Amino acid sequence: MRVAIVHYWLVSMRGGEKVIEALCDLYPEADIFTLVYDKERVSEKIRSRNVKTSFLQHIPGAVRNYQSLLPLMPFALESFDLSGYDLIISSESGPAKGIIPPPHAPHICYCHSPMRYLWDHYQTYRANAGHLPRMMLPIVAPMLRSWDVSTSMRVDRFVANSYHVAARIQKYYRRSATVIYPPVAVGDFKLSNESDDFYLCAGQIVPYKRIDLAVAAFTKLNRNLVVIGEGKDIDRLKQMAGPTIQFWGRAPFPVLQDALARCRALIFPGEEDFGMVPVEAMASGKPVIAFGQGGALETVVPDLSGVLFYEQSVDALMTAVQEFEEKEAVFRPQRIRLHATHFNQERFKEGMRAVVDEELHAARAGRPERADGVSHHTVTLPVGAVQAVRTTVASSH
């Protein structure tokens, strides 16, 4: 069976690329299709695969400035020739599901998020864009939204990385989705019963991550905070940071691994679709202080694996840190790590195998051609699913 994995762009190693690694484990002979590719910034596992790029790769500066090429991405995706493949798995956050699948091949879309910069985060992205993108977005965004919705009809089965994302797939595409949490390599993280006197923020330094809240809160609290990551917001954060804030930049995995093991807690002030870094912190036995929206509601269980705050403000985060410090002894590293195993790699792989088997069986049985955009083999998102999951997880400890 010939398998094609389609990913929006391969220019770094973040959560989406870890999903690609797990899919490569499931399908060792699969080819990878991507819009642009920087082989120096991805893992050896991805580099060892047959990676095919679009015509965007040949535009000077495309690898560094790929986001400015958004209006060309539909044309680039539709130029991929997938006619020789028996199974298509797209990894969607930037545009990826917009490929044209052959009629005989099931197309499964693992959706990290409907494109944020076209939908729920549109105004935030526009406000923080450069002058030219800010002028162009209102012109191109309506056309891209129309294309984004229409290409959802090319997908036979949506798989969401959280119930939060499944609800957004339903809202924007009117499609139901199966939920399979992303793969976290729990065994790669060191369980630690000890902590040094610092908190940790880790991730891409961009406005929607709201790391500015952490910098401001920990400056006011006079607590030590280490920030790991890089991005366009870094200079602004350095200007507002007090003497207790350290910026370590882009860190290799051993440095991140060690920081997660040694910190008192991870600070997670943004709203994420899932958020793999909090689970990686939990795999290290460390609690998470997180904004109580999005994927954090599915991973952070109060008094078991962390503390939630429900207003994205400096004061609310400061209060949450003080609450954590008052009951820090409640959090047990072994229990936190056990909780993290609910999101391990094997659960992801088992779930994806089951979905693929169902879709291949449906294709062999003669499922109707893609026409109305209706997914004939999806799992409808149940009401109260998030609360049910959190209750089940909490009661299992």
Descriptive account of the structure:
The chain has 397 residues and is an alpha/beta fold. The chain has 2 domains: 3-183 and 345-381, Glycogen Phosphorylase B (Rossmann fold, 3-Layer(aba) Sandwich), CATH 3.40.50.2000; 186-342, Rossmann fold (3-Layer(aba) Sandwich). The chain is 39% helix and 13% strand. It is built from 15 helices and 13 strands. The protein has a 7-stranded parallel β-sheet with strand order 3-2-1-4-5-6-7. α7 packs across α12 and α10 (276-283) crosses α13. The longest helix has 21 residues, at 131-151. Mean pLDDT is 90; it is low at 370-397.
List keywords for this structure.
single chain; 397 residues; alpha/beta; Rossmann fold; seven-stranded parallel beta sheet; three-stranded parallel beta sheet; 15 helices; globular; disordered C terminus
